[in-house]
Design goal:
Elements: H1 3-21, E1 42-47, E2 49-54, E3 65-73, E4 77-85, E5 94-95, E6 101-115, E7 124-133, E8 151-163, E9 167-171, H2 177-180, E10 183-184, H3 186-193, E11 196-200, E12 206-211, E13 218-225, E14 228-237, E15 244-251, H4 259-262, E16 268-269, E17 273-276, E18 282-287, H5 289-298, E19 303-312, E20 326-331, E21 337-339, H6 349-352, E22 358-360, E23 365-369, H7 371-380, E24 386-390, E25 400-403, E26 412-418
Antiparallel strand pairs: 1-26, 2-16, 2-18, 3-4, 3-12, 4-11, 4-15, 5-10, 6-9, 6-12, 6-13, 7-8, 7-11, 13-14, 17-25, 18-24, 19-23, 19-26, 20-21, 20-24, 22-23
């Protein structure tokens, strides 16, 4: 046999040898495996009672994102979102004298998300309005999403700008010049500047999320003096170094959510559809007390191995309007609420990847693991309600509609147990 004929089969054998001798387990493919397949026991389904309620009294102070918007549709009615912000000087104060010649003042807002979604290459025209507030703005914990701050008649900007990918730039008019031309301390400047309201014009049919943690979200004054030819800049803080609050208003008249227009404590039956809207909009409340009473009687020693809440999206709701994630809260006897226990459990990313409340575009549903939550309800025998909210509901305009409890593909809980 020639040398070439001998080397070829020997090389192929050596390539295969490490593979044949390796038996170590890996996590490869675990993210594609249904968690139900790893548990032995009886599989069952819980038929739920559900309703839509208002997500009322939403705190908005101290967060690093805010929404500007004016949007309306036949399902959720109209929504108005206004961002209020302080204008903060440097900590050492400000000294802009008459010798300073202001060339321009430009506000830059770094944009995180835009609703509704358009192709990335599509520029969008936004009509932005910036008004000075009527009184010095000092937000505290009493500022909720329903609190509107009075605006003065002084307008710093009222025009259209084009948004492409990451930010918008607003060139303020000269009415802001005397506001910034001050010589005072850091604290006194708040009294002079008062603060600003940033919003979109009526009927904009758009909502944008401003990143208040971005350093480029700022108010920059460009200036020069007679003593120097070059242009200088002075940066005023309107990002996380300044105080903010958001005002979110909803009008549900003439929509499926019309009962909320006259009664903020109303609940809307969820047999057909359930509605999730952010920005102080709506949430979903689930009731499992009837199931818990019956199951505890029939299976007093049952152990829950795995449970997941399936939330199919209603037909006709486009994928581009989907919130990224849905979270679950557990209500307590005293009226307070906390995230369900499963939300605090650190698990293998491969085992539960894609299940913890995220939207699945192929199945057009949300899927949330609630194993420990269901076990706790069965142990105590009391269900004060499980409520579903949109993740980042203070800083994103994305909303959705979930199939009701009596629909063909209803919201439900699938679980595995043994006893």
């Amino acid at each position: 046999m020639s040398l070439k004929k001998l080397i070829l089969p020997l090389g192929l054998f050596l390539l295969l040898l490490p593979i044949a001798c390796t038996e170590d387990e890996t996590d490869l493919g675990m993210s594609l495996q249904d968690p139900f397949t790893r548990y032995h026991g009886t599989r069952d389904t819980i038929s739920l009672t559900a309703c839509t309620i208002l997500d009322d009294s939403l705190a908005t102070v101290g967060y690093t994102a805010g929404v500007l918007g004016d949007y309306a549709d036949a399902t959720f009615g109209s929504m108005k979102a206004i961002l209020y912000s302080q204008i903060a000087a440097p900590s050492e104060g400000i000294n802009i004298s008459d010798a300073v010649i202001i060339d321009s003042v430009v506000m830059t807002l770094v944009i995180d998300t835009v609703y509704p979604v358009l192709p990335d290459s599509t520029p969008r025209t936004l009509h932005v309005i910036v008004n000075q507030l009527a009184e010095p703005f000092r937000p505290d914990s009493s500022f909720l999403s329903t609190k509107q701050v009075a605006e003065s008649e002084v307008c710093f900007f009222d025009d259209e700008v084009t948004y492409y990918a990451d930010s918008i730039r607003l060139r303020m008019n000269e009415r802001i010049y005397p506001v910034l031309r001050q010589s005072c301390t850091y604290d006194d400047f708040f009294n002079y500047s008062k603060g600003i309201a940033i919003k979109l014009a009526d009927n904009s049919q758009t909502a944008v999320t401003v990143d208040l943690s971005a350093s480029n979200t700022s108010l920059r004054m460009y200036y020069h003096t007679y003593a120097m030819d070059s242009t200088l800049q002075f940066v005023f803080t309107i990002n996380s170094g300044a105080g903010h609050s958001m005002y979110y208003a909803h009008d549900y008249s003439g929509t499926p959510l019309a009962p909320f227009a006259t009664n903020r404590k109303a609940s809307i039956s969820g047999t057909e559809k359930l509605y999730l809207e952010p920005l102080g909009g709506t949430r979903i409340r689930l009731d499992m007390q009837a199931f818990i009473d019956q199951f505890r009687t029939e299976h007093p020693t049952a152990v829950i191995h795995y449970a997941e809440l399936l939330m199919p999206v209603s037909t006709g709701v486009g994928d581009t309007s989907m919130p990224v994630r849905i979270l679950a809260l557990k209500n307590h006897a005293d009226g307070s609420s906390t995230y369900v226990t499963d939300a605090n459990v650190i698990t293998n990313a491969y085992t539960y990847g894609g299940f913890d409340g995220y939207y699945n575009r192929e199945k057009k549903q949300y899927r949330l693991r609630i194993t420990r939550h269901l076990q706790e309800l069965l142990r105590t025998g009391k269900d004060y309600g499980t409520e579903l909210i949109i993740d980042a509901r203070r800083s994103s305009a994305f909303r959705t509609v979930i199939n009701g409890t009596a629909s063909d593909n209803p919201i439900r809980i699938d679980f595995v147990y043994s006893e």
